[in-house]
Amino acid sequence: MSGRVLVVDDLIPNIKLLEAKLNAEYYVVSTAKSGKEALDFLENNQVDIILLDVMMPEMDGFEVCKLIKTNPKTSHIPVIMVTALSEVEDRVTGLKSGADDFLTKPINDVILMARLKSLLRLKSIIDEIRIRSESLNQLGVDQNLVKLDFNCLNGARVLLVDDDVAQRNNVAKNLSEQKAIVNCLDDEPQVIEELKKTPYDVIMISSQLLKIDSLRLCSHIRSMKEFRHIPILLLVEEDEATTLAKGLEIGANDYLVTPIDITELITRTNTQVKKKRYQDELVATMQDNATAAVKDALTGIFNRRYFDIHVRKIFDTSLAANNPLVLGVCDIDFFKKVNDTYGHVAGDEVIKAFAKVISETIRLTDLVARFGGEEFVFVLPLTTLQDAIVVAERIRMKVEELDVVSPVDQRTIEVTASIGITIIHPTDTLQSMLDRADQALYRAKQSGRNRVEFNE
């Protein structure tokens, strides 16, 4: 996941070093040499994350961060404070000023990129909530989005998987002091059973478990649909670079290096709980507003009216930020034949099953809507064409595997779908994207149906 990063530092060599590292990972980098320059830049420009040096003349990083976080225009932007200060008091000062994270110099590249990705995922969720709220307001649906407190640990449920008694007790004690509810386990079947019974806000897994393969447990949790949204924090030793890289690849959201710094423990856990609560709010907001104004009565997904308003906001945001965006159009193959053979009641069941497959395959921050009849459209922000093809193929295969039974005579209805996708270009209009996706869908049908085609 790439994004727009603002680097703020009064020393040119520091700026150049960070700029080179970020450019190598395909981030779009802007720079500012003082707090005032950064604040002026933010007045007229959008960024996804800010790397802010603490020790600057005239206005230090703490003051700059406080001003960013108290400005409604910029308060949603994650701030990572970069500091040579290693005292706990300095970190606490940074947290009190509103910083989302902090890194100590010299900066470890793996840690830097992991922190950026974690906070960018959080911001993408926040941005989606803001955009959807605007769309619903435009349709006359009142929105009362919850404003999360800085301390999200109060009442948060934490599942700690660790068989090191001293470390386990230390983590549990310090999180409990923040009023989190901590449960400790060290057996994989018990972990899965506990997750099925209790809604957790974050899972912590030690890499040094004696009876459990930590990475396999992480993979197991990520493979289960009902647990995919729960953040995972790995507890790793400093020399476990390979384990860490594999864990992040499998789906861990963040990590803590042992022996654990308590301030870092609280900060990392708080960030992940906040991310999950934003996700939960996004789901709740969409469910609470399942009204005729925005939802399709048959399928429960968004209708054409909502899509026309919301997709414009997603398109404009992606175009302005030069972010990737994929649009897909899909429909059920030979749907008229389904209606003629099994009846309209059975046809409705097929449409509902098709909509359910798409909804469960895409992310919470994506958009799917019923365009009309058996035709559906989905929008995938911050997604490459290659990744979108994988998603579309997954939808196609799941549809092919559907067992839809006619409610009239209990016959099984075979269902397949054709899908056309395209990716945004700098010169695009929304209509030109829709036209290209339609052309790809037409090609899929002409090529035999039950296939995915893309049109760049």
- Spatial separation of the terminal alpha carbons: 20 Å
Tell me the radius of gyration: 24 Å
What's the number of extended β-strand segments? 17
**Helical run tally:** 15
**So, CATH architecture of the largest domain?**
2-Layer Sandwich
Question: What structural category characterises the helix and strand content?
Answer: alpha/beta
Q: Walk across the major sheet and give the strand order.
A: 2-1-3-4-5
What is the third-level CATH name, the topology of the largest domain? Alpha-Beta Plaits
Strand content: 15-25%
Unreliable segments of 5+ consecutive residues: none
Summarize the main sheet.
5 strands, parallel
Mean pLDDT reading: 89
Description:
- The chain has 456 residues and is an alpha/beta fold.
- It folds into three domains: 4-138, Response regulator (Rossmann fold); 157-286, 3-Layer(aba) Sandwich (Rossmann fold), CATH 3.40.50.2300; 304-454, Reverse transcriptase/Diguanylate cyclase domain (Alpha-Beta Plaits).
- The chain has 15 helices and 17 strands.
- It has a five-stranded parallel beta sheet with strand order 2-1-3-4-5, with helices on both faces.
- Strand 14 (404-405) and strand 15 (412-413) form a beta hairpin.
- It is globular and about 75 Å long.
- The chain starts with a strand and ends with a strand.
SSE map:
Layout: E1 4-8, H1 12-24, E2 28-32, H2 35-44, E3 49-53, H3 61-70, E4 79-83, H4 88-96, E5 101-104, H5 109-138, E6 157-161, H6 165-177, E7 181-185, H7 188-197, E8 202-206, H8 214-223, E9 232-237, H9 241-250, E10 254-258, H10 262-288, H11 304-321, E11 325-332, H12 335-342, H13 344-361, E12 367-372, E13 375-381, H14 385-400, E14 404-405, E15 412-413, E16 417-423, H15 430-446, E17 452-454
Parallel strand pairs: 1-2, 1-3, 3-4, 4-5, 6-7, 6-8, 8-9, 9-10, 16-17
Antiparallel strand pairs: 11-13, 11-16, 12-13, 14-15
Helix pairs in contact: 2-3, 5-10, 5-11, 8-9, 12-13, 13-14
